[in-house]
Design a protein that fits this description.
alpha+beta, about 600 residues, about 10% strand
Length: about 600
């Protein structure tokens, strides 16, 4: 019998799963949000569910499963109530109640809440005339007036000016005369509902005018209070990062600002479209990679160089994570990674075990309690799906690659895919047993483990996010996994070097003179590679959006495949009980 004919497997005794009781809370909260979104459930229903769900908790004898089910029911009721508050309950002076389906000529006063985005004038071959410039921004309404009366108002208003507005910035109080209206419904059946999209972003009214002169600045100002602090912090961090690196108006500066600081609004439109076309827009959305680099830098500097105690170190790292979350734009990926990082710091401080599934569920619960509308945004959905892929799908994919490499006799490659943990590798003597564990493991992961696992991470994230991307954006990126695998080797050093330039620039300002040119060159290299990848035929395929049933069927198939693999390895009952024990840890 040849060694290739031996069935590679893991040892018979599986590693115990970490408990994740918050998974049930997150699922219950999401269920409640979806039910209220579909059915507009009356207020008394979630109240009754909370009362009914609270009763079994106090029954004797206590039961972990009964308590967990009760908590899930209560979480579902909270999801219903939180979504109803965000969706249907507005203050009496909200600007929505002063609008109608037909536009109304009014004067609106408010404070500018978002940077004005200007679309320059252009020629469209589909029309015979030149399209005028267009400026979009959001204001926080303060009052509405016409020729006879002025009324106080509140709420966000989406503003469109069919002109180039250059005299307005964030924090200014403006008075505008134009047409106020409800959000527009879909113009054609099946088309994208921009009105619903705006509503889920908290914007329930739209305003439009024709000329820049219609927008008058009443008061110049910067954001005050905590908003002013955050604005100053962002500008200071951006200065330490970009001033020694790029010349003025360099388009690559926006890419670096997005990758390191999470400020994607700085990316030029052409470059942003190239990243989207190649399926690599996630590199422009700061996420767990940024938090990870920040935490590792802080840990290495404080623990290795400063000889600071581990508890003081994690407190300082937690402060750094909070500051980074303030500097970055408030995207779901940043909030998810930041919350997980803070929970991880707390677990290290109190000497608790690592429970990634529980931490991920906790981040989802916190984000959705703050804004339940985040669940319907692609950024939230794709961000959490990608993390789930890395946690659940990627290990299975890496194991398949390792088994295939063992059967071909490529034991070194198999060891890199499996981290030396594949049971069949012990027959070759290429596992980690009997070796100098610490140095060998570190050298192995730096030389081989990280590159090959970046490939499986890219493929697993691409597999699990592609169905949803096709459904939302009506596009398919067949080479997204390849371009992501390639760009990892540029993006990781750029992000790390960017953090070093920014953090150490505060302590040693001249360091930017040394690192700035290297950082600029590497960022330009990344932009050039993305532009090159965007020229490959078939990089993105546009078409009709698949049905929601098809998307659900794909994810059900992936889940069934993962369940089947686990059941084959451990037995159906053992696998099922282990999954139940994750949510109900007291029963394990």
């Amino acid at each position: 019998m040849s060694i290739q004919s031996v069935q590679p497997s893991v040892p018979d005794l599986p590693r115990p799963l970490r408990p994740a009781p918050l998974v049930g809370v997150a699922v219950g909260l999401i269920t409640g949000i979806l039910l209220d979104n579909w059915l507009h459930i009356p207020t008394f229903v979630p109240i009754m569910l909370i009362v009914a769900g609270s009763v079994p908790i106090f029954l004797r004898p206590p039961s972990a499963i009964r308590a967990a089910c009760s908590i899930a029911v209560i979480a579902s009721a909270l999801g219903m109530m939180r979504h109803a508050l965000a969706d249907r309950y507005l203050p009496v002076d909200h600007v929505y109640f002063s609008t109608a389906t037909d536009p109304v000529l009014l004067t609106v006063k408010g404070r500018v809440a978002s940077p004005p985005i200007v679309t320059p004038a252009r020629k469209d071959p589909a029309v015979a005339y030149e399209l005028t410039a267009k400026t979009r921004f959001v204001i926080e309404a303060q009052d509405l007036s016409n020729s006879t009366i002025t009324l106080p108002a509140s709420g966000l208003v989406g503003v469109v000016v069919y002109d180039d507005v250059k005299h307005v910035s964030v924090g200014d109080v403006v008075r505008m005369t134009g047409w106020l209206r409800h959000n527009f419904p879909p113009r054609n059946p099946g088309s994208f509902d921009w009105g619903l999209y705006q509503h889920r972003n908290g914007i329930d009214a739209g305003f439009s005018c024709q000329h820049a002169q219609s927008v008058g600045v009443v008061e110049r100002g910067r954001p005050e209070g905590w908003r002013g602090f955050v604005d100053a912090l962002r500008n200071r961090a951006k200065g330490y990062l970009l001033d020694p690196t790029f010349e003025d108006d360099d388009p690559s500066a926006g890419v670096l600002s997005a990758m390191v600081l999470g400020q994607r609004s700085e990316v030029p439109k052409a470059i942003d479209e190239a990243f989207i076309k190649t399926g690599n827009a996630h590199f422009l959305a700061a996420s767990g990679t940024n938090i990870g680099w920040l935490a590792m830098m802080g840990w290495w500097v404080l623990m290795r160089l400063g000889r600071v105690s581990y508890r003081k170190t994690v407190v300082i790292i937690a402060v750094m994570i909070v500051l980074f979350m303030l500097i970055a734009e408030p995207e779901p990926s940043i909030l998810r990674a930041g919350i997980i990082g803070l929970i991880g710091c707390a677990s290290i401080y109190f000497r608790r075990k690592v429970m990634l599934a529980n931490w991920l569920a906790a981040s989802a619960v916190i984000i959705l309690l703050i804004d339940p509308m985040d669940f319907f945004r692609p950024g939230f959905q794709l961000s959490f799906l990608a993390v789930i892929a890395i946690m659940a799908l990627e290990p299975a994919l890496a194991e398949i690659c390792a088994i295939f490499a063992v059967k071909l006799g490529w034991t070194q490659l198999a060891r890199q895919f499996s981290g030396g943990k594949l049971y069949a590798l012990t027959l070759y003597g290429t596992g980690y047993e009997g070796l100098d564990g610490g140095q060998h493991l570190l050298r192995s992961r730096l030389v081989g483990f990280l590159p090959v696992r970046l490939l499986t991470i890219s493929i697993s994230a691409w597999l699990i996010t592609t169905p949803l991307s096709c459904y939302i954006f009506d596009t398919f990126s067949p080479w997204g996994w390849f371009s992501t695998s390639l760009l990892w080797f540029i993006a990781l050093p750029v992000t790390l070097l960017g953090f070093i330039t920014m953090v150490f620039g505060v302590i040693i300002p001249p360091i930017g003179i040394v690192l700035g040119p290297i950082l600029a060159w590497s960022t330009h290299l990344m932009v050039s590679v993305v532009d090159l990848l965007a020229q490959i035929p078939g990089t993105i395929i546009s078409g009709r959006s698949p049905s929601l049933i098809w998307v659900c069927a794909v994810y059900a198939t992936l889940a069934a495949w993962l369940w089947t693999r686990q059941s084959q390895r451990e037995g159906v009952l053992t696998a099922a009980w282990r999954r139940v024990a994750v949510i109900f840890p007291d029963s394990w």
